[in-house]
Design a protein that fits this description.
Layout lengths: L1 E6 L6 H8 L7 E7 L5 H7 L3 E5 L5 H14 L10 E5 L10 H10 L3 E5 L11 H14 L11 E3 L1 H7 L8 H11 L4 E5 L16 H17 L6 H10 L11 H18 L1
């Protein structure tokens, strides 16, 4: 599995984050994309044992994520299955090991994409303007009502990731990824994780409220204009069957809808 960390001016925390990632079961490749930092982010990451690739100028997180994916793909072996991809923020420090739960969800639960969500006791998280825009857009397009629709910490299969690239620009990456994955027939799951941002990287979404809200809105509107939505029957059935913390769409929902529509089609033909 490859852990991909996009970083900008995160020299204070990147080494600790990289070292903590080594405790995540299955991680055999650590890629840090230094997105035009003006400090020693890249050097500190390299000394901590990461593979470092640098953008000469800051291109934004979406571009950095794509660079990390390409670097990881180049290091996959042709005779081995493609690595899972784990995206983490650069300033998580020791809390990066919490991502073990995301990896376990993909490996053990068979979900295509596991997203970090705050513990249920943290009611203040997930209610910003940007998150409300993203949640509303995801619910409109897919029926899913996620707790943390803009979570940056995610673990995906290579097959799922290939469907959602290229990413939406700016801070619209996560909402675009979620909608595109679910509409394409992949499954998602939120997993409680207690991550702590140490604050050195000021480019993370939760510190850029205006840009995050704008980019989330554009990502949602772009998909509305292209009519990127799940079938209405699946949206309604999925929303009705949804359980907190479970896989979405819930197991059996899509098959039940398809079977019902098939049966209705045969009945119409007989008539």
């Amino acid at each position: 599995m490859a852990a991909i960390i996009c970083a900008h001016d995160a020299e204070a925390d990147i080494a600790l984050t990289v070292r903590s990632c080594r405790a995540i079961p299955g991680v055999d490749l650590l890629v840090v994309v230094d997105d035009g930092s003006d400090d020693d982010t890249g050097r500190n990451a390299r000394l901590a044992g990461a593979v470092v690739v640098r953008h000469s100028v800051a291109r934004g997180r979406a571009s950095a994520m794509e660079t990390g994916v390409k670097v990881a793909a180049m290091r996959d072996r042709a005779d081995w299955p493609a690595r899972l991809l784990l995206f983490l923020s650069s300033d998580l420090g020791e809390s990066a090991v919490e991502a073990s739960a995301l990896v376990e969800a993909v490996k053990a639960e068979g979900v295509d994409c596991a997203c970090a969500a705050p513990p249920a006791s943290d009611a203040s998280v997930g209610r910003s303007l940007a998150e409300n825009i993203a949640r509303s857009g995801i619910r409109h397009a897919t029926g899913w009502d996620p707790q943390a629709p803009l979570s940056e910490e995610r673990c995906l299969t290579r097959e799922a990731l290939n469907v959602v690239m290229p990413f939406s620009v700016g801070f619209g990456v996560e909402v675009g990824m979620t909608i595109d994955l679910l509409v394409a027939g992949f499954t998602m799951m939120e997993v409680p994780c207690t991550f702590t941002h140490l604050g050195s990287d000021h480019t993370i979404g939760e510190l850029n409220h205006v840009s995050r809200s704008r980019d989330a809105w554009f990502a949602v509107q772009h998909r509305k204009l292209r009519h990127v939505r799940l079938d209405a029957t699946i949206r309604r059935a999925g929303a009705k069957a949804q359980r907190s913390g479970g896989i979405y769409p819930p197991p059996g929902v899509v098959d039940a809808v398809v079977a019902s529509e098939t049966a209705a089609g045969h009945s119409g033909e007989g008539a």
